[in-house]
Amino acid sequence: MIEIQSYKVKFSHNSLIIPKLIFENKGLYLIVGENGCGKTTFVRSILNIFTGYEGKILIDGVENYRLSRKEIASKISYLPQEENTTFPIRVKDFIETGLYSQKENIFDIVVDFLGLKSYLELDYNFLSGGERQLVRIARSIVGKVKYSILDEPDTFLSKKNHEKIVALFSYLSSERGIILVSHSQNNFRDFELIDFEKFSEEE
């Protein structure tokens, strides 16, 4: 499990304070809240990308700062909000860059769920925004990990493609913890809701 203990981080006008929070390695979790409440900062804290917080974050019983980036990546995959790729790269190769820390993968399952088979030989940079987002999601979950964290995965997605990712996340949730960050809970109704508004305190 991922366990959060006495977590606190200060922003210019508010603080995010989480006494305790647990994510199991199976299930669907949805973090919601207004802009600026600390959602992205929080998930980056789990990954030890952001370190300016108080408290403890344990990954399978070990504090995250004691784990190397490679060790964290072997347990947790991550989809950041934004990412710029300008050099030419095939969709297939782009997805496979998500396997740098995992030997086992679910490439065929992910491609099938997301309908990406006909895109594999195309240049990632020539895809539409929604198509690129599907490919980014595929890369972030193609490795066999215990947890996947996805920050605003539904950005640019049509209703049809949104249904594809929800189906995939539901399928994967029997074997890993899926942690999403989103502005809207309406798009992910079967997820356990974690509203960060209740953890936000004005300074």
Using brief descriptors, characterize the structure shown.
28% helix; 27% strand; globular; single chain; 203 residues; 5-stranded antiparallel beta sheet; 6 helices; Rossmann fold; alpha/beta; 5-stranded parallel beta sheet
Distance between the termini: 31 Å
Oligomer state equals single chain
Strand order of the largest sheet: 5-4-1-2-10
CATH fourth-tier homologous superfamily: P-loop containing nucleotide triphosphate hydrolases
The description of the largest β-sheet is:
5 strands, antiparallel
**Spans where pLDDT lies below 50 across 5 or more residues:** none
What share of the residues does DSSP label as strand, in percent? Answer: 25-35%
Question: In CATH's first tier, which class applies?
Answer: Alpha Beta
Describe the structure.
With 203 residues, this protein is of the alpha/beta class. The chain has a single domain (2-202), classed as 3-Layer(aba) Sandwich (Rossmann fold). The protein is 28% helix and 27% strand. The protein is built from six helices and ten strands, in the order βββαββαβαααβαβββ. A hairpin with a 2-residue loop joins β4 and β5.
